[in-house]
Amino acid sequence: MNQATGDAVHIPVMLNEVIEALGARSGGMFLDCTFGGGGHTRAILNANPDACVVAIDRDSRAIERGRRWSSEYGSRLELIHTPFSGMVKAVSNTTFDGALADLGMSTDQLREGRGFSFADQGALDMRMDEGLGNDTAAEFINKASEREIFIALAEGGVGKNARSIARTIIFERPFASAKALADAVKASQLGKRSESKTHPATVVFQALRMKVNNELGEIKQLLEDAPCIVKKGGRLAAITFHSIEDKLVTNCMRKWESAGSYPANWRGNRTEKQIGLVVNRKATVPSDEEILHNPAARSARLRVFQFGSDFSK
Question: What domains are defined for the chain?
Fold first, then answer.
């Protein structure tokens, strides 16, 4: 089956926890900012016959797969192809009772041979939206300077080996496939001590994917726009999978809640007023049973914020 047009195989993370966090069983209008395989969207729609969802995704393949079954829900489901940065324009003046952002990679994307997986023999692409015209991962690493590659790796979480891996990429390029890059990274790290049991190219691929798709910029835009599209009393539920995006979400939610009560060394932007409350002080994590059945969920963290809450409590 062609994964570009076939059914999604991605398993949604913390499904019941998301439904509970959004209050979807009571019905309402919801925004799924990361449609992916559609698992969370289906669950929200199935939670109450009065629930409606506007689902967006920057990946046209995800939207295409969703259109295969979206008619089951009629006018209750609208699918829109857009990144976070186009979200406000795409939903026009609609406001929502809740919004979900699952910031992880879809299993479907990993299986499509687009260079997201370091086992791919195909082209090293990594673009979420192939019609956007931006550079592929191969184009970036094959023409960028060593410094530019180092910065991308460092900002993407590679850590102390970012400089040596950048140097290896410069020495070994050009790269045509994901596997060729992964093999070069692995060879460069042989003999070096590592506490991680994962493939040494895992975080490298994460960093390149983030660079190619401007993921951090898109997440920042999502967080900036969220207060404008979620109703008073509504909630934003965000699922993160690595510390970089989790830090962005956590700091933003704390900023929304703090209303100017900042530590002396606070370097972030200051809001003029409190706009809501953090619902779960400690991130919700998948159960042991869920991780057993879906190991990809093991690093997931769910954080929830309620806008326009009763601040007197």
Answer: 15-108+215-307 (3.40.50.150), 130-212 (1.10.150.170)
